[in-house]
Amino acid sequence: MGIDGDKSVDFFLLLDNLYAEQAHGLPSSPVLKNFQQTVERRSVDSLLFFLEDGSREVLQMCVGVLFYTLQKNITEAADSSSPAEKARKLILYASHDVTLIPLLVALGTFDHKWPPYAADVTLELYQHRQSKEWFVRVSYHGEEQVVKGCRAGLCPLEEFLEVLSQYSVSPEEYNNLCSQVEENQQSDS
Q1: Cα(107)–Cα(121) distance, rounded to whole angstroms?
Q2: Exposed, middle or buried by CB within 10 Å (0-12, 13-18, 19+), for 57?
Q3: How far apart are CA 77 and CA 84, in angstroms?
Q4: Closest CA to 104 of 63, 143, 142
Q5: DSSP codes of every residue in 3-15
Q6: For residues 138 and 155, is the Cβ–Cβ distance under 8 A?
Q7: DSSP of 30-89
Q8: Left, alpha or beta for 74 (phi > 0: left; psi -120 to 50: alpha)?
Q9: pTM of the model
Q10: What region does 69 belong to: left with phi over 0, alpha with psi -120 to 50, or beta?
């Protein structure tokens, strides 16, 4: 790539640049384009290293409050005692690629590829007309995913909520976890 061996390389920045140039039709460095797969692989490897290969505590810090909110919103939507007119039909969250990866790791659907520009994760809640049983479908970038702990793409609600609960933390629990990390860092100094 033409970088001196004693210089550090920010693969996240390089990959972000490459994707932004491609998404906006801007010219790219031909040398950098030749190394795009390497840059992507190094970025994925680096992020997985930070995530400690799916450590529960690290994933809780990354997506725990989001999972808590999802659990709450899905449970409320499926609650038969809630008035139908109050139920939200759509809830939209926006994030960056570095947030999607821990989310996909926690759901057990990460394919070890950096999310493409404007990638999306869609959760759909369904109710069977006869049995009244609830199901969740997860799609990533338009393709149905089988979440770990679920037998198929259309996952029974209780099984899906169980997956979320493994990493879910309330805002208060999150603040406690942050305090513990800060205390550990201070005692290590």
Answers
A1: 11
A2: middle
A3: 9
A4: 63
A5: --TTS---HHHHH
A6: yes
A7: HHHHHTHHHHHHHHHHHHHHHTTTT-HHHHHHHHHHHHHHHHHHHHHHH-TTS-GGGS-S
A8: alpha
A9: 0.85
A10: alpha
The whole-angstrom separation of Cα 24 and Cα 17 is 11
Tokens of 107: 């759901």
pLDDT in tens, 113-147: 999 888 999 999 999 999 999 999 999 999 999 99
> Among residues 36, 45, 2, which one has the least CA distance to residue 18?
36
What number of residues does the chain have?
A: 189
Residue with tokens 């899906």: 160
Question: What DSSP character marks residue 172?
Answer: H
Positions of the chain with pLDDT under 70? 1-6, 84-87, 181-189
